[in-house]
Design a protein that fits this description.
Blueprint: E1 7-10, E2 13-16, H1 17-55, E3 58-64, E4 76-81, E5 87-90, H2 96-104, H3 112-119, E6 120-124, H4 134-139, E7 146-151, H5 152-161, E8 183-188, E9 194-195, E10 202-209, E11 215-223, E12 226-231, H6 237-240, H7 244-257, E13 261-267, H8 285-297, E14 308-312, H9 318-330, E15 337-339, E16 347-348
Parallel strand pairs: 5-6, 6-7, 7-8, 12-13, 13-14, 14-15
Antiparallel strand pairs: 1-2, 3-4, 3-16, 4-5, 9-10, 10-11, 11-12
Helix pairs in contact: 2-3, 7-8
The protein binds zinc ion (2 copies).
Length: 349
């Protein structure tokens, strides 16, 4: 019987130790290589996820963008944490026509009625003017159970004049007459944050002035570290008095400073030619820029350069809307990134 170095018997058959060791080394390296690839893939996934989070925190679908006349396109903006389908409507001037437009443009892949019932988890109403609430009223019979959020003054007006069991059925769970309890009416406390039911978001309301003493509301929507600010109708502090906008700018300045505020939705209803005594609690391009200068004075210089500002509530006629756009572009000393929203077209922040 001949014994070779590094050779042995296994189950009666000869084998080579060198081959065995080479095999083990090969398997070990293969395993280590595979392990590195797996770790690499997991690391890339984590990076990508966090990058997506960094580049976009909110998605907004405008259901209505105008400030008057066209009842199929009045103020309403759906906001959700990016990637979720859990929206809250900021104002509800137009709902159905906006959802139809969003479906047409393939922003939503489900029928409008399904988007209404399943995607919209609640409504934040800035004030009770019909151009901000008529879509909510008229769609309420087809709607699903959800929450309506508003500050006391706005909630009272909606309960007294709309959901009062006379001009319209009371779809709420409080107020006048028979309660149908489809909507929970949640009265917001100014400057206090509250969770938006059915979503991962929170909202803080700030009181605005909209022809003193009539009130409107700004909603600061937060998702994790990121926030988005939406203002209902309001006039400049210099005209309205009371310093409501200054108080709001002071509240959000730290969020701009730390880059946590992702954008501001604010109205510009009239062109500059509108005299101050006929502003009716609204802004012009010049007044918007003046208010933005106040905000800029509260943050580090250049913090607002390239900052997204969405222009809402332009009032017809079309000639005026064109003038508003031209005047804003012609005088933008802070270098704001001006965004002119379109009905049904998704925006990311
Ligand atoms: Zn108004
Ligand atoms: Zn309005």
């Amino acid at each position: 019987m001949i014994f070779y170095k590094n050779t042995g018997y296994c189950f009666g058959k000869p084998f080579d130790y060198e081959q065995l060791i080479n095999g083990i080394i090969y398997l070990t390296f293969s395993f280590m290589f595979l392990q590195r690839i797996c770790v690499g893939i997991i690391f890339c996934l984590i990076q990508t996820t966090s990058m997506v989070g960094q580049t976009s925190s909110f998605e907004v679908v405008p259901l209505g963008v105008k400030g008057g006349n066209d009842e199929s396109n009045l103020s309403s903006y759906l906001v959700a944490a990016t990637g979720s389908k859990q929206y809250v409507a900021l104002d509800a001037g137009t709902i159905q026509a906006g959802l139809d437009k969003a479906v047409q443009q393939k922003t939503f892949a489900v029928p409008a009625i399904q988007a209404l019932r399943k995607y919209i988890k609640g409504y934040c109403i800035s004030h009770a003017h019909l151009d901000h609430v008529s879509g909510l009223i008229i769609n309420s019979p087809a709607d699903s159970n959800k929450t309506v959020y508003a500050i006391q003054s706005c909630m009272s007006l909606m309960q007294q004049h709309y959901f009062n069991d006379k001009t319209w059925a009371n779809f709420g769970d409080q107020g006048i007459g028979n309660f149908l309890k489809k909507y929970h009416f949640e009265t917001l406390v100014p400057n206090q944050e509250i969770a938006l039911q059915g979503t991962s978001m929170f909202v803080t309301p700030f009181v605005l002035s909209h022809v003193h003493p009539y009130e409107s509301t700004a909603f600061l929507v937060r998702n994790g570290d990121a926030s988005l600010l939406y203002l209902g109708d309001t006039g400049p502090d210099a005209v309205e008095q009371g310093g409501r906008l200054l108080a709001l700018w002071r509240a959000v300045a730290p969020l701009i400073q730390t880059q946590k505020l992702k954008g501001i939705f604010i109205e510009v209803s009239f062109p500059n030619e509108q005299p101050d005594k006929f502003l009716f609690g609204h802004l012009t391009p010049r007044w918007l820029m003046q208010e933005m200068q106040v905000l800029a004075s509260l943050v580090e210089e250049k913090s607002l350069k390239g900052f997204p500002v969405v222009i809402t509530h332009q009032k017809p006629p079309v000639a005026n809307e064109k003038k508003i756009v031209a005047q804003l572009k012609a005088y933008n000393p802070l270098g704001l990134r001006l965004i002119f929203p379109q009905q049904g077209k998704r925006l990311e922040f």
